[in-house]
Write a structure and sequence with these properties.
The protein is mostly helical. The chain has helices at 2-8, 11-19, 23-52, 54-77, 98-127, 133-164, 167-187, 201-214, 234-237, 275-313, 332-357, 363-394, 413-437, 443-471, 484-508; strands spanning 315-316, 318-319, 323-324, 405-408. It folds into three domains: 1-198, Up-down Bundle (Growth Hormone, Chain: A); 201-273, no CATH class; 286-512, Up-down Bundle (Growth Hormone, Chain: A). It has 15 helices and four strands. The longest helix is centred in the middle third of the chain and has 39 residues, at 275-313.
């Protein structure tokens, strides 16, 4: 994580200062990269569940990241792989050549693939070492804390080296961290409880749909023995009702002539499935609405975290007379805030709440609180940006690209702290929620669901920013002449609507009782 975040945290600045990319365009590129990094864990999870297991996917991804860091070092070291330097905002900057773009994007893609493939696979591997649901929930809190701690070091120490000493040295540190992490991870292999891949779980889900469609004319039965059970003993205890979710899918488990061979096993797997497989598909479908609300929860954070760097580039970042805060390090405020509050919530707030009320704060409640706090952070961002634009107008800096606004960068801190608090509520809550609610055969996919939502959110944020750029004049290449405050107010409105959507989804959803559940595949309604 330290290696990956070391180059990712400062990517916008690297593109602007070393490759002469306009600030908004650099922000868009960074959003696409973040999207890729957060979509790749889903592919990694599928490969882990279906073929290789979590350990091997994490190891291979770390090696790919290792190769990506070598390429990034070359782009920083060799002058032939980047355009000649120019001042920020100058109209005489030379754009990179096609070859330079190819090498740059290849290095970023490779490094992104490595970081994305290992990120949430490690979370699944770690949770698999524990048995009790409560221990796993605590693990996810501290996994999130550890990831943020790595990001903090990357966004301060490594970013400072990149900005103040050299990009080559900064990337070399990332390279060394990657190499050490890979060596330590491989050395501990014999101590891990590794999961065994059981084939693609998506095949089983698809079989349910196909079998249900093929038996669409079969009448449903209320008798448990008329359905196929993966475990024979569950047929005696599994409740049979007529009001389960998506009753149509139950036809996939209805036994008809020729479906079962003489050994009692499924003879035609694309025409008969077990009730457990039907239940797995229904669980996934029921989770989709709540998961989709997470996309629009993370979208404003994705926009703000990127634009905050471009805002910081135009503000006074001096700390004393000799030290200047790197623009990319502004994001560390979110990381410090979320890390601090994750620890505070886990050790004090949540236990105190349980003592006072007699029951714990549920995972959905934590996610809901995160929704509200993120909306509040957008409102604060809009007001701070209005203050920044007023300062620009008072000093007549609108028409000066690259001009430094006489306004301290500390003004951005409150909104970033509030984002960190919101993240501390909803990120660990979402990871634990999906891990507990997903079928056991989809556990790696479960922890990657948050990453998938983050990845899609970054692409949505990129599309939204581009749409607003085309329809309005709020987001020009020079943000000092734009209206970022209007963008933030749009995000406030969208966030409030999304929160109401989440409340409806959460109200309709019924969580599994993970403490009392004996068999993760039993107890589905027919």
């Amino acid at each position: 994580m330290l290696s990956g975040f070391g180059w990712l945290a400062n990517l916008i600045v690297y593109l602007v200062q070393e490759f002469n990319v306009e600030s908004i365009n650099a922000t868009q590129i960074a959003n696409v990269v973040h999207g890729c990094i957060n979509l790749l864990p889903v592919l990694g999870a599928i490969i882990a569940d279906s073929f290789l297991g979590s350990f091997h996917v994490a190891a291979i991804s770390s090696f790919i990241s290792f190769l990506g860091m070598i390429l990034l070092i070359l782009t920083a070291k060799l002058s032939s792989l980047k355009p000649p330097p120019c001042e920020i905002g100058s109209s005489f900057c030379r754009a990179p050549s096609k070859l330079q773009y190819v090498v740059l994007y290849l290095s970023i893609t490779t490094a992104s693939a490595g970081l994305g493939g290992s990120r949430y696979t490690l979370a699944t591997l770690g949770a698999n070492q524990l048995d009790k649901p409560k221990d796993k929930e605590t693990f996810f809190n501290w996994f999130f804390f550890t990831v943020n701690a790595s990001s903090i070091i990357s966004s301060t120490a490594i970013v400072y080296v990149e900005d103040s000493i050299s990009w080559v040295l900064g990337y070399t540190i990332c390279f060394a961290a990657n190499l050490i992490a890979l060596a330590v991870f491989l050395a501990g292999q014999r101590f891990y409880r590794c999961d065994k891949p059981q084939g693609s779980p998506f095949t089983g889900l698809l079989r349910v749909v196909v079998a249900a469609v093929r038996k669409r004319k079969v009448l449903l039965s209320s008798r448990s023995e008329d359905y196929y059970h993966e475990h024979r003993e569950t047929s005696k205890v599994m409740p049979v009702t007529a009001n389960g979710w998506f009753r149509f899918l139950n036809r996939a488990a209805m036994k008809t002539e020729g479906d079962i061979d003489s050994d009692g096993l499924i003879a035609r797997p694309w025409k008969l499935c077990s009730l457990e497989q039907v239940g797995n598909l229904r669980t996934v479908i029921r989770l989709v609405p709540i998961w989709s609300s997470g996309i629009f929860l993370i979208t404003p954070v994705a926009i703000q975290s990127s634009i905050a760097v471009t805002q910081a580039l135009s503000m006074d970042r001096h700390l004393g007379s000799n030290f200047k805060i790197p623009a990319a390090s502004i994001i560390v405020v979110i990381l410090v805030s979320s890390s601090f509050f994750v620890a505070l919530f886990d050790r004090f707030v949540f236990p105190t709440w349980q003592k006072l009320t007699g029951r714990p704060l549920t995972l959905l409640q934590r996610i809901g609180i995160g929704h509200v706090i993120i909306v509040l952070s957008m409102a604060i961002s809009a007001m701070v940006e209005s203050k920044r634009l007023k300062t620009i107008h008072d000093n007549k800096l609108e028409a000066l690209p690259g001009a430094i606004v006489p306004m301290q960068v500390w003004w951005l801190f409150p909104q970033l702290v509030v984002i960190g608090i919101g993240d501390a509520f909803h990120f660990p809550g979402q990871i634990a929620f999906y891990y507990h609610e997903f079928p056991a055969s989809l556990r790696s996919i479960a922890t990657a669901m948050v990453s998938l939502a983050v990845g899609i959110a970054f692409y949505v944020s990129t599309a939204l920013v581009e749409l607003i750029r085309r329809l309005t004049g709020w987001l020009p290449g020079n943000i000092n002449s734009g209206r970022l405050d209007n963008l933030y107010w749009i995000l406030v409105t969208a966030g409030a609507l999304n929160f109401m959507y989440f409340l409806v989804c959460a109200k309709l959803y019924k969580c599994r009782n993970i403490e009392k559940e004996v068999d993760a595949n039993s107890g589905f309604d027919i």
